[in-house]
Amino acid sequence: MPVSSSPNGAARAQAVQPDMGIALQAPRLMPHAPILQVTGVEKSYGRIRALNAVDVIVYPGEILGIVGESGSGKSTLLRMLNLEELPDRGDYRLNVPGVRSDNLFELDRLPRRDIQIRHIGIVYQHPHLGLRMRNTSSGNVAERLIMTGERNFARLRAAASGALAASEFPLARMDDLPVRLSGGMQQRVQLAKAIALRPALLLLDEPTSGLDVSVQAAVLDTLKRLQRETRVTMILVSHDLGVIRTLADRVMVMRHGEVVEMGLTDQILEDPQAAYTQQLVHAKL
Amino acid sequence: MRLLDVRDYCKSFTIHHLQRAVPAFDGLNFTLDEGEFLLVRGPNGVGKSTLLRCLYRSYRPTGGQANYHSRHGWIDLAAAADVDMALLRQDEIGFVTQFLRPRPRVTALELVAEPLLAQGQTQDAAEAAAAAMLDVFGLKPELWSAYPTTFSGGEQQKVNLARALIRPRRLLLLDEPTASLDKPTRTALAARLGELKRAGVAMIGVLHHPEDVAGLVDQELALALPAGAPALPDVTELVENLDAHR
Fold it and tell me: Where are the beta strands (DSSP E) in B100-201?
């Protein structure tokens, strides 16, 4: 924390105009183009402005964290990145083989749905949003492949068990209904479903928020290993700064539907620039 | 070859709820060549660690430049894009503290191997290198597959140093890495730093016990409190001083 790094800081403090950090340059060393580029997203619900001029740029293999309190717009933004919901205005490009370079927000429903199924995976905080509770776990995972036209039972079965194994789900229970599973196992089924088609982009909405601490740590380790092995790009929404510190490379701070600050994870947590980020970080022990 | 050229480097913290700016350091200038060791000296609270954190960009500097000669050309660390900094941290610039951040259910070997796996090395190669590194710092082999969350402070520090120094680097920032090491670990660390220096790695160090690296230091940078700073340290600083000299 900045204050403690300068122990006699209070005494030396001067009432001067805030001295903001040096403006950053465009990337020069990064050899890849962004995999995801979202610009100018606006969304209002009646008179409530949920998202205002939001830009997001993510490079291949990165984990971007999005933090902010309830109502900051972070989950709304994630639903738009998942093409579940459309903004009033905005541009969304995914730089992925097989995806046309159009604005995804302007595609018709069917091609949009196709991109969502093949290239984007999502894990929700609440498993019932992502899973059919009355179908088997393996069936839930296989559903993604069925949607792309796969009908061969042996191949569906193999793909489902492969994805469940990659999510470190105990295969002996792959035919159990999700309602019979613990919270941590339900999240692993959601994760298996999300990665079954090897998406370029994995969206995580408070993926470990409902779990107790040791299960949370185990799921976070699975995510970390998965990212390392598959290089899948992740966007992680969480209000838990510990989860963000463990996983994210960069962090975007949101408030009232706007991006307040963006930076390397340790910089956001240790030298937050914006007044709101300082409050948010210091509110945490 | 010149590796780093720092000019008019400044940092002050803006504390919004106090509506205050707290200066850390102001107008620093120095250069560093490959294989050189720069020791940063000065009383507590003068901004030594802050300087290292600014170079690593855990903190955002507020003025000046830190031009770094990367494998891909010169880049100003004070203004480089976040993704560029992330790449440099992965491949070229390392930060060594005295603290490990262990994670539940991750073994010592896995923690140390992780930076190599992140670079794309195979599991076998990364684990072999991790084992060799843990051996250098004297962690008993029976602890390699145990969880560092349960380790003593000294054992955690060995894991920490192994993890921090396993990847080849061109510039190492050392933030009190020897602060509370036992003698054999301290000797092992000094020997390892010596090897790295001979291999051309440049280092900037903040050390409570500079004698630990006495043979390695090429230049010193003395930081002083800015003009007008109070002569008497506050309580926090007195406590830190006590800790340092215990």
Answer: 171-175
Beta bridge partners of B5: B31, B67
Instruction: Give the pLDDT confidence score for residue B98 in this predicted structure.
Output: 84
Mean pLDDT by 10 residues, chain A (285 residues): 39 44 92 96 95 97 95 95 97 91 92 94 94 95 92 94 95 95 95 95 94 90 91 95 94 96 96 94 74
Residues B176/B208, Cβ–Cβ less than 8 Å: yes
Tokens 């020897």 sit at which residue?
A: B178
Taking contacts as CB-CB distances below 8 angstroms, the residues of chain B near A23 are 79
Give contacts of A 169-228 with B, CB under 8 A.
213-214, 217-218, 220-221, 228
Asked if B61 and A279 come within 8 Å (Cβ–Cβ), the reply is: no
Give the single-character DSSP code of B177: T
Give me the residues of B, 178-207, that contact A with CB < 8 A: none
**Pick from B156, B141, B143: nearest CA to B97:** B156
- Is the pLDDT at B162 greater than 60? The verdict is yes
Of A275, A254, A204, the closest CA to residue A53 belongs to: A254
Candidates A30, A255, A261, A264, partner chain B, best to mutate (most B CBs within 10 A) = A264
User: pLDDT band at B242, cuts 50/70/90?
Assistant: very low
The answer to whether residues A1 and A269 touch, using CB atoms and an 8 Å cutoff, is: no
Q: What is the pTM of this model?
A: 0.89
A16 lies within 8 A of chain B by CB: yes
Inter-chain residue contact A7 with B12, CB threshold 8 Å: no
Answer whether A235's CB lies under 8 Å from A205's CB. no
CA-CA-CA-CA torsion for B22, B27, B33, B34, nearest 10 degrees? 20
**Chain A residues touching B59 at Cβ < 8 A:** 2, 267, 270-271
Between CA B20 and CA B22, with CA B62 as vertex, the angle to 5 degrees is 25
Distance from CA of B216 to the nearest CA of A (A): 26
Torsion of Cα atoms, B101 then A209 then B86 then A191, to 10°: 110
Mean pLDDT value of segment B62-78 = 97
Sheet holding B171-175, edge to edge: B93-96, B171-175, B202-206, B37-41, B219-222
For B25-35, the pLDDT digits (tens) are 999 999 999 99
